[in-house]
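Worked example

This section walks through a single chain of length 72. The input is the sequence exactly as stored; nothing has been trimmed or padded.
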Amino acid sequence: MAEYMNLKIGEAAGLVYHRLEEGECSLNQIKTHLSTNGIDSQLALMAVGWLAREDKINISRESNRWSVRLNE
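Given that input, the structure is written out below as C-alpha cells.
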C-alpha cells in the first residue's frame, strides 16, 4: 500500500510541478487543477508537501491566500 501511495503522490507532484512551470498559483488553483485530473484535494496537498520537502517549491502566505511557485 505504501508503494502505491508513493506512486500516486509522485504522479500528483509531477502534475503540480508542470502546472507551476506556467507560473505561480494558489493552493486552491492547484487543488482545482488536480481535481480535473481525478486527484482529490488531500492527495494534492501531499504532492505540494512532497515538492516542498525536495526543495522544489516556495510557499508563501499573504492574508488568507497561500501562494506556491517553483524555486529558482
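What to look for: Residues 55 and 71 are 7 Å apart (CA to CA).
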